[in-house]
Automatic annotation (TrEMBL):
Keywords: Hydrolase, Protease, Serine protease. Residues 9-414 form the Peptidase S9A N-terminal domain. Residues 474-686 form the Peptidase S9 prolyl oligopeptidase catalytic domain. Its EC number is 3.4.21.26. This is prolyl oligopeptidase. The keyword Protease applies. It catalyses: Hydrolysis of Pro-|-Xaa >> Ala-|-Xaa in oligopeptides. InterPro entries: AB_hydrolase_fold, Pept_S9_AS, Pept_S9A_N, Peptidase_S9_cat, Peptidase_S9A, Prolyl_oligopep/macrocyclase. GO terms for molecular function: oligopeptidase activity; serine-type endopeptidase activity.
Length: 692
């Protein structure tokens, strides 16, 4: 059982620190903790971590928890093949069950053995292989290497045959989104400017597409970007026909503009030149396929001739489900829909005629969310005949299947074993009413024989922002919790992408309270429906989900027994000052705006700690190498709660060292982080892990 008499090192309070915003004074007594490298901050953080470590290491059965996390994380991994070079030559991402990091491999032909092209396991433990893109002839590899996380990668170029690194050093920083020229003479990529090319403080902005020519010695040339708005970012793809580079400019996840770069003469051709909608473009012969939510909040598919790329006509109209992606493979169109927050795949002919549904193994996910929006889990060539399907669920790790259209058969290619018997668990979808009467869906995952006695340990999660859907995805942490007898609940609160643009916009800016109300209602429904009690309910959120669980703990502390808040934003009046978040005002609103600023101040967790409230026990886990969310926010929040929220708690600080926004860079680090989190659940809820 948790010990409320823990002694935490006091944080120095600076009563003079603060600022005036919109005519109101806001104190910021722990602003000094924003200097993470300062000796005083490091000393305080280490002392806080020592208290947390003493608690977690003493949890009875911790080794059982670690073993459950390890077994759930240790499974073989294999990607669909990436063809490049002569026919039959394919590249793969691959790792054995105990592989610390994914390797990039080569197979020279059918039946040939796998050869290691790039093995990041030979690098320092905190170095990550973020991406690897082979040249069209298969002779070169452009790969991104980062330190302490998956952001801020730098491109290196490898000679595949010799294993030698080329001297090329592409211009800029935070490299991403590599796309080779068809003749392998160079590649396009997204990057931020070199230091000194922009004013101080703008180094993480002015993202653009550059072209690097191999061996030229000349600086990469800037080919696409925005001249006036520094917050946009860019991405690039090469069309299968190898005639065009498809260029995107993103206004966060709210809208993008799309151009074609005709490679024969470097002419820019507008397809969607204004930032009015989210669009995905694929070149098919002399046509463009455009998946868009323009005038269709749940998405539609349009087609346009290359001779008139801005003249669209609807090929697949908007329906009741949310159309996420459409991929042309083997002469057919594979449309992936979100149907009540899980995926359905419908196959259409080239003219849009519906043919059939593609049968998936279970309720689960095909697509994934990345910096370039929603990425289809259906892959293959328009001119080829192999259809690859990626799939996962809450109880099945990332898997790869082949789909045979003629036989209408989905065959397993790689389905790993993570030690979880999926037949023993059920995923059910329930619906509940939020405060304003809106019906909200929620997935529950638990053992089939679960007793409905109101005493189950339930972990509730949510996200509620940035048009990102909370869909069935496997994680070792979730699987371990299920093995230990816990229940998983995932609330599809407003602000996410589960039900299209309108659902997302229903919790943007001054409507964000809808997401918080939806989440609090989910917690209360789990109790009223007889699954659990507040004392057995742990609320867990990551990133924007971390903000969600912190706000709801401040607003409805009696609804939760414990809160695990990972890599969050917690100071909603200062977030634009953090490099990568200045453009997030399109999602949250601006603290400088009289209406939006007042609204942000009304729910900002750091500014709404009240001494008269009994908050639940909470753990804050900042990723200290985080490039996406301010790693200092959890430090400031923990300091304030420990000083002012004395009726509740305790409040633990668990720094994720050598970790970026997505966690550690090695399998061992990820397992240890999961073991820590499971230990916190057991300690905070008073649970005893089952015997091995």
């Amino acid at each position: 059982m948790k010990n409320r008499t823990l002694e935490f090192p006091a944080a120095r309070r600076d009563p003079e620190r603060g600022y005036t915003l919109l005519g109101r004074w806001f104190d910021d007594p722990y602003a000094w903790l924003e200097r993470l490298d300062a000796p005083e901050t490091q000393s305080w953080l280490s002392a806080q971590e020592a208290v947390t470590r003493a608690v977690l290491q003493a949890v009875p059965g911790r080794e059982v928890l670690r073993n459950a996390a390890a077994r759930s994380a240790c499974y073989a991994r294999l990607s669909p093949p990436v063809p490049a070079g002569p026919p039959g030559r394919e590249f793969f991402w691959q790792a054995d069950a105990d592989g610390e990091k994914l390797k990039f491999m080569l197979r020279r032909g059918k039946g040939a053995p796998l050869e290691t092209v790039l093995d990041p396991n030979t690098w320092a433990s905190n170095e990550a292989l973020v991406f690897a893109v082979p040249s069209p002839d298969g002779m070169r590899l452009a790969f991104g290497k980062s330190v302490g996380g998956t952001h801020a990668a730098i491109i290196h170029v490898l000679d595949v045959e010799t294993g030698r690194l080329l001297p090329d050093r592409p211009r800029g920083t935070s490299h991403a989104s590599v796309a080779w020229r068809p003749d392998a003479s160079g590649f396009f990529y997204a990057a931020c400017p070199e230091p000194g090319e922009v004013p101080p403080g703008d180094e993480a902005h002015w993202n653009a597409i550059y072209e690097h020519r191999l061996g030229s010695g000349e600086p990469a040339r800037r080919v696409f970007g925005d001249e006036h708005e520094k917050a946009y970012w860019c991405s690039v793809q090469i069309s299968e026909c190898r005639r065009f580079a498809v260029l995107y400019k993103w206004d966060y996840v709210h809208a993008n503009a799309v151009y074609l770069l005709r490679l024969a003469d470097d002419r820019l051709v507008p397809v969607a030149p204004t930032l009015r909608a989210l669009n995905q473009v694929q070149v098919i012969g002399d046509l463009l396929l455009i998946r868009t939510d323009l005038d269709a909040p749940r998405g539609r598919l349009c087609v346009a001739p290359l001779t008139a790329p801005e003249h669209w006509r609807t090929l697949i109209p908007e329906g009741s489900d949310t159309l996420q992606t459409v991929t042309g493979v083997g002469g057919r169109l594979y449309a992936v829909y979100s149907h009540a927050a899980s995926h359905r795949v419908r196959i259409h002919a080239e003219d849009g005629t519906y043919l059939r549904d593609l049968p998936l193994p279970a309720l689960g996910s095909v697509n994934r969310n990345e910096g370039e929006g929603t990425v289809s889990g259906i892959s293959g060539a328009w001119s080829g005949d192999e259809v690859w399907v990626s799939f996962m669920s809450y109880v099945q790790p990332p898997s790869v299947y082949r789909y045979d259209f003629a036989a209408d058969r989905l065959s397993p290619y790689h389905v790993p074993d993570a030690g979880l018997d999926a037949s023993k668990y059920v995923t059910e979808q329930v619906w509940y009413e939020s405060l304003d009467g809106t019906r909200v869906s929620m997935f529950l995952v638990h053992r089939r024989d679960l007793p409905r006695d109101g005493r189950q340990a339930v972990r509730l999660s949510g996200y509620g922002g940035f048009n990102i859907a909370l869909e069935p995805r496997y994680s070792a942490l979730n699987a371990a919790w299920l093995k230990l007898g816990g229940v998983l609940a995932f609330a599809h609160v407003r602000g996410g992408g589960e039900y299209g643009r309108a659902w997302h916009e229903a919790a943007c800016k001054t409507r964000r309270q809808n997401a918080f109300d939806d989440y609090i209602a989910a917690a209360r429904w789990l109790v009223s429906a007889g699954y659990t009690t507040p004392s057995k309910l742990v609320s867990r959120g990551n990133s924007n989900g971390g903000l969600l669980v912190a706000v709801t703990a401040m607003q409805a502390p009696e609804a939760f027994g414990a809160v695990y808040c990972r890599a969050p934003i917690l100071d909603m009046l200062r977030f634009p000052n953090f490099s990568h978040l200045s453009s997030a005002t399109v999602e949250f609103g601006s603290p400088e705006d009289p209406v939006e600023g007042a609204y942000l101040a009304g729910y900002s967790p750091y500014h709404n700690v009240r001494a008269d409230r009994r908050y639940p026990v909470m753990a804050f886990a900042p990723a200290l190498n985080d490039q996406v969310a301010p790693p200092h926010d959890p430090l400031k929040m923990a300091a304030r709660l420990q000083a002012e929220g004395t009726q509740g708690g305790p409040y633990l600080l668990l720094p994720l060292r050598d970790s970026g926004h997505g966690g550690g860079t090695t399998l061992t680090a990820l397992i240890e982080q999961d073991a820590d989190e499971l230990s916190f659940y057991c300690w905070a809820l008073g649970l005893a892990p089952p015997e091995p």
